[in-house]
Amino acid sequence: MADISSAGTGIGPIQTSYMAMVQRKRLYSGLTLLIFILLMVVGFNTAASRNGGSFWGGLPNFFDYPSEVVAEVVEKAAALPGHFVTYFPALIETINIAAVSTLVGTVFGIVLSLLGTRGLARYPRLIPLFRRITDVMRAVPEIVIALVLIFVLGGGPVPAMLAIAFHTAGAMGKLFSEVNENVDLKPVEGLRSVGATWSQQMMLGVVPQVAPNWLSYALLRFEVNIRASAILGFVGAGGIGYELKNAISWGQGRFDVAGAIFIMLFVTIVLVDQLSSHYRDLLTHGRQAKD
Amino acid sequence: MAMADMTSHTGSKQAMERLFQRKRLVTFGAFAAIALYFVYIFFAFDVAGLMQRASADNARALMADTVSYKVHVTRDNRSGAVSSAIEGHRKGRYPEGTSPDWVETAGDITTIDLGDGHVVTYGPETITYDIPGYGLVSATPTRQGIVQDFPAGDLPDWINASKNRVAISTDAGRLTVTRNRTEVFRYFPGWEIFWFTLDSPYHGMGPVELGGHALSGEAAEIFDDFWNNPAWLHSQVFWALFETILMAFLGTCGAALVALPLAFLAARNFTPLLMIRFAARRLFDFVRGVDALIWTIILTRAFGLGPLTGALAILITDTGSFGKLFSEALENVDKKQIEGIASTGAKPLQRYRFGVLPQVVPVLLSQVLYFLESNTRSATIIGAITGGGIGLLLTQAIITQADWEKVTYYIVLIVIMVIVMDWLSGWLRRRLITGDDGGH
Lengths: 291, 440
Fold this sequence. Notes:
The complex is a heterodimer of chains A (about 290) and B (about 450).
Chain A: H1 2-49, H2 55-58, H3 64-75, H4 80-115, H5 127-139, H6 142-153, H7 157-181, H8 186-193, H9 198-237, H10 240-250, H11 255-285
Helix pairs in contact in A: 3-11, 4-5, 4-7, 4-9, 4-11, 5-7, 6-7, 6-9, 7-9, 8-9, 9-10, 9-11, 10-11
Chain B: H1 2-44, H2 47-53, H3 56-67, E1 68-76, E2 82-86, E3 103-106, E4 109-115, E5 118-122, E6 127-131, E7 135-141, E8 146-149, E9 159-161, E10 165-169, E11 173-178, E12 181-189, H4 207-227, H5 234-266, H6 274-303, H7 307-331, H8 335-343, H9 348-386, H10 389-400, H11 404-432
Antiparallel strand pairs in B: 1-2, 1-12, 3-4, 4-5, 5-6, 6-7, 7-8, 9-10, 10-11, 11-12
């Protein structure tokens, strides 16, 4: 009896303090949620008030344009293969921009990441410098460089390629250096002990360990870069985006061209997406079937 | 016994060598393929032609404008009136009767000293430019055209002369004479009217002096003059930055809110019905495949230009990405916790709340925050198309091709904005998700 009562007095304070803690926690999460909702609502209203057309006014018209395009594409279905042939070179250009910029960006990203990883860096004192360079390169949106380069170099695929490669190098530099940090340093030490140069240590000691991860990130990047190169075409850098911009400005009666380009872009993106996720699966999980 | 060992050794040695050879072949083959691809690209992108088309003049103008400002000294050739203005801007104009100290007016004659012996003189009729090491150039604008006189010999390539226009660019400055207008540009380092325009009383004050004025109760006026600077429009630029971040925030958080319930439908362990799962997944793939660019075009038709359209474009595209990522996270949920909650008699909703959400929320939050940073960059680009935020200002400044210092300014602001958002999202990730090691 005495035991039980003493146990009761023992649990009582614990229970009340636990309940108080739970309530405090609930209050905090409730407040966070409230602030978040408030921010969303206020932000939405601000954005809506600065918009050309209103949200609720535009909502019923959301499907107008797509349905017009679809209707016209269906109506002129016979012309579609012709459009595909006409705009195929532009699509190839967009894919080429993405591929070259991924290759170039990845190479620079590898160099930056190796120079910026503790334990691997060629000049350990300069690690912060190379990291800041990576951060800044990553922070520059492609459009900034693309527009400036279009002014200097004239329109075409090269400005877009350079712009995307610049950003890719920064983004890859960061991702790769995260991969590099998990590298086993023993092979590097072994190579160093037999007198290998820094580039030999990296090529033979580090690259074999990280290559699958690097490749997997590069594949993901390729997919991202296809979207980027399409969008840069829209602001004047050539490729399918540029053709799309011209096609949609023709307006009613010529929607079949825009529709054809929509289809090509969609198919390309989905295809690359599926292919890259398939190969990334292979690279990270090996050759066993998944799902 | 020894024999057998030997043969098996040589056998495995041969196998090894074959493997090595194959690997070597594959590696070199890959490099050769990439090299070939670059050769193809060299011709496909017409790199050789690009070198010719590249405009060194544009590059020079860009570099010069970026680090300097120019003062225009303009003469109206009809009335003979001369005025000076920084960047030719209305608010950068020197008040009537005053001019920079290197411009002297005596009666009808204005003498402009460009430094290093370069002197331009606006006479009553004739404009002369004394160029050291070349000679005296004179040009007289008349109604029929410009009567020109150059030193003997061929014209150098920095002089561009035709019947109605003479343009001379030297290191000291630039002189342009047309029938109606004569204009001299002189370049100076820095951005003179960045803080205050010439009509502001605070123009030309040092930080110490400004601090003194601010302490004596003029802080509000000083800020007002800076904030509403009519040449640089600081308040509008700030709003544009805010708009871009707003687009990214609304798009990312909105997408997460929409994607979360849909992700449950696409996760194997929560939706046993194959049909629904399949439909949800294909929806994500479709939305992602259509891509922000196409969504932007469609949305612009429905909602007009502006930040909301950009936010919605990000929202729709990212709903697909989040749906995919979230459903993968949900499929990796540990069943034991849910069973434990269920064993206490919890209803389904409580099982989700206490069994599932605590497991996935850190993963989801980390992904959302990661996207927030990358969407700030996307919002800059989408803003250039939908006409919202700093992306619009940037494209406008580049299209006018005159205000490269503004382009530089916007680029610096954009980079700072993205770095701040990156830092903020990293900080929030660490604060909200203890024990999270990066996520990405």
